[in-house]
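Sequence design from tokenized structure. All designs in this work follow the same two-part layout: the structure record, then the generated sequence. An example of the structure record is given first.
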């Protein structure tokens, strides 16, 4: 029995059209900058910072905290230029106003989004300038009050100082008489601090501010929100995009104690109830027949598609689009004395974030405004989507940001917000939506499945003269950012990342890609395209080294001779692992290099192999990184370690199987992630330089899988060409 919900699939999709505009919503939302900073006795110096009479400095947070430490690093950047007392610095999440708080890194172009390891590089300039402007206003006010030239004044950790007279006044006291100009003062880049002048940036003793609450249990995630009069909702998710419920046993579910509504909706079937237990029991009792006639992925079978992907990758007439070109690779390869070719592939991967998707939504009686409580990687997109559903404007949506229990790209997509707002608007109640792990998996927005064909040409002297890397995959941008996808002529900025080879001195190089259209909800995943593209290219480079009779480390050093920073991380990791030292019997090393959004890394894995079970054991992993200026050294090491764990798990165990367009795995007993007993010792080294910061959150992922695979080849003489390198695949390769 279907209950009327007064929302059609067409209406829902039209209302949530902003879901596909992840990278094009800069400037869409309104609001008064800095309004949220207003407090009694405080002065708002610009959209980013206010100072209270008690000396408290409040910095607006444009990014989401999902474990990467931005609640510390973002205000730390501003506080450095402000010369603030760090003990008095606090933060407040910025309202969703991309025009003011957007990230103007070239990859985002003003979108208010936390992703791709570019929070620090994207906000580096904005936050420094905001801090410097506030500092200048403080100095100008003291100069006027004391009737001394501003040039005679300086600052010292929360005080304005006049060295000639020995006078000093705290920032809080300056606020009591300060006049803040309508327009912030102009500050030249040359007036900003030099790295040698930093007091806060780079300090080893400054710990992350979010850690205490996470260790004592007081941290608040989206899933922790409770409001008076709140009801609960669970959703049996549509198995694929475009599938809708044709029939349900709603009459049976309504008999479950505590269940109040059963709502067939365009995205699945929602069960609303008085308690979490009621919604879970009701959801488990649901039986749904799905109409998949409008679902592009309805016929998708991942095992069958692998064969088709491989055929398309080999097809010389396949429609491919170039991503990276240097010289004439096809000509160089065609004329080479020796041509090498190899194929690699990878499976779909689930984000497996610890906190399942959730959102609390409250819609006004007139349906023209709403509040949502959630942890999202983009508050601006959440506001735009909620507004689209209610046919109102984003400034009528208040987003209460919370900590994220894991994101890695999954919480860019605001489907939980959309679903909660739809249910709240229908019921006119405050609704808390929490997906079960099973439904979270069913609604997965995975890393795409891929196939790679690589070719290399060697001249008569054994020199590498040509390189061609072809990728076949569904395009992430086509799903997640259609306007950008269209604007770039069909390039997949997310999924093709890592195909480029700017640091290897091969005279002729080509990286191109063939688009598959299978209807899967592919999306950004930690390390984005570099996770699988570097696996293929760094493994293939080891094959080339073998054909040359060269040591893989020495070949990488030779190819990076024109790039001292690249050579720096390669030499550092080789030193850390003692590359040439003999290993215990049954163990050996593999190496890989990666550049990710200009952060350079190199990794070495020490592995062994159980030939009976096919199980790879990584005993130690070393990684060196050069991210330019390091904001928080201790946290930078933690980010490398976390990314390595993520890379290990995806390299060795993680895969989604798709049948009939639906994910087959239901929970972690079928989607296996790395266990604590699988963990190697992880050794990290950060090479800090005075170059602008380039990000840390994902950079540890790309080098892990190829380093492991290259080590396994040394042990067995067999190449592992598919991710994950599961025991079953390893045994198959050993027997081949």
């Amino acid at each position: 029995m279907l209950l009327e919900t007064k929302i059609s699939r067409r209406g829902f999709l039209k209302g949530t059209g902003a879901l596909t505009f992840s990278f094009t919503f800069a400037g869409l939302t309104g609001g008064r900058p800095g309004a949220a900073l207003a407090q009694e006795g405080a002065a708002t110096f610009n959209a980013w910072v206010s100072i209270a009479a008690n000396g408290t400095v409040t910095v607006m947070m444009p990014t989401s905290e999902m474990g990467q430490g931005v609640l510390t690093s973002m205000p730390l950047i501003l506080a450095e230029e402000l010369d603030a007392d760090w003990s008095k610095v606090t933060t407040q999440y910025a309202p969703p106003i991309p025009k003011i708080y957007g990230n103007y890194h070239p990859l985002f172009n003003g979108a208010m989004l936390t992703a791709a390891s570019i929070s620090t590089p994207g906000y580096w300039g904005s936050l420094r300038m905001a801090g410097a402007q506030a500092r200048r206003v403080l100095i100008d006010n003291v100069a006027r009050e004391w009737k001394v030239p501003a040039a005679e004044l300086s600052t010292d950790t929360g005080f304005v100082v006049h060295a000639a007279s020995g006078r000093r006044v705290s920032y809080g006291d300056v606020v009591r008489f300060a006049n803040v100009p309508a327009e912030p003062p102009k500050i030249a880049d040359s007036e900003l601090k030099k790295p040698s002048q930093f007091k806060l940036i780079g300090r080893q003793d400054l710990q992350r501010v979010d850690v205490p609450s996470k260790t004592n249990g007081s941290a608040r995630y989206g899933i922790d929100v409770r409001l008076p009069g709140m009801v609960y909702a669970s959703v049996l998710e549509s198995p694929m995009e475009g599938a809708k419920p044709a029939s349900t046993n709603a009459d049976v579910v309504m008999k479950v104690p505590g269940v109040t509504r059963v709502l067939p909706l365009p995205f699945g079937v929602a069960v609303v109830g008085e308690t979490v237990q009621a919604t879970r029991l009701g959801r488990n009792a649901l039986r749904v027949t799905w109409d998949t006639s409008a679902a592009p992925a309805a016929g998708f079978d991942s095992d069958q598609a692998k064969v088709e992907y491989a055929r398309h990758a080999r097809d010389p007439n396949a429609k491919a689009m170039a991503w990276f070109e240097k010289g004439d690779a096809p000509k160089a390869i065609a004329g080479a004395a020796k041509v090498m070719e190899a194929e690699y592939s990878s499976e779909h991967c689930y984000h497996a974030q610890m906190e399942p998707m959730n959102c609390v939504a409250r819609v006004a009686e007139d349906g023209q405004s709403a509040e949502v409580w959630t942890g999202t990687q983009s508050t601006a997109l959440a506001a735009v989507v909620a507004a689209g559903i209610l046919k109102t404007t984003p400034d009528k949506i208040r987003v209460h940001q919370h900590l994220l229990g894991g994101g890695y790209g999954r919480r860019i997509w605001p489907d939980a917000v959309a679903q909660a707002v739809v249910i709240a608007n229908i019921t006119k109640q405050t609704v808390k939506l929490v997906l079960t792990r099973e439904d979270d998996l069913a609604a997965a927005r995975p890393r795409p499945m891929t196939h790679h064909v690589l070719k290399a040409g060697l001249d008569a002297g054994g020199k590498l003269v040509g390189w061609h890397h072809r990728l076949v995959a569904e395009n992430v941008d086509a799903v997640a950012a259609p306007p950008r996808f269209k604007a770039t002529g069909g390039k997949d900025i997310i999924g093709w990342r890592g195909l480029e080879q700017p640091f290897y001195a091969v005279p002729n190089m080509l990286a191109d890609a063939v688009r598959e259209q299978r209807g899967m909800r592919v999306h950004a995943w930690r390390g984005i395209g570099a996770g699988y593209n570097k696996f293929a290219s760094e493994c293939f480079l080891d094959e080339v080294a073998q054909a040359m009779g060269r040591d893989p480390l020495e070949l990488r050093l030779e190819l990076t001779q024109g790039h001292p920073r690249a050579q720096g991380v390669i030499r550092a990791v080789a030193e850390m692992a003692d590359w040439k030292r003999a290993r215990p019997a049954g163990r050996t090393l593999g190496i890989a290099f990666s550049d990710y959004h200009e952060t350079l890394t190199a990794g070495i894995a020490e592995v062994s192999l159980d030939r009976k079970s096919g199980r790879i054991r990584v005993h130690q992993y070393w990684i060196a990184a050069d991210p330019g200026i390091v904001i928080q050294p201790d946290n930078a090491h933690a980010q490398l370690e976390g990314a390595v764990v993520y890379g290990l798990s995806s390299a060795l165990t993680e895969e989604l199987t798709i049948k009939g367009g639906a994910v087959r795995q239901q929970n972690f007993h079928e989607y296996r992630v790395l266990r604590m007993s699988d963990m190697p010792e992880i050794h990290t080294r950060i090479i800090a330089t005075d170059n602008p910061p380039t990000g840390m959150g994902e950079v540890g992922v790309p080098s892990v899988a190829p380093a492991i695979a290259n080590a396994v080849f040394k042990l067995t003489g067999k190449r592992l060409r598919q991710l994950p390198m599961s025991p079953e695949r390893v045994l198959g390769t050993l027997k081949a």
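Residues 1-5, 17-38 have pLDDT under 50 and may be disordered. We note this feature because it recurs in several other targets discussed in the main text.
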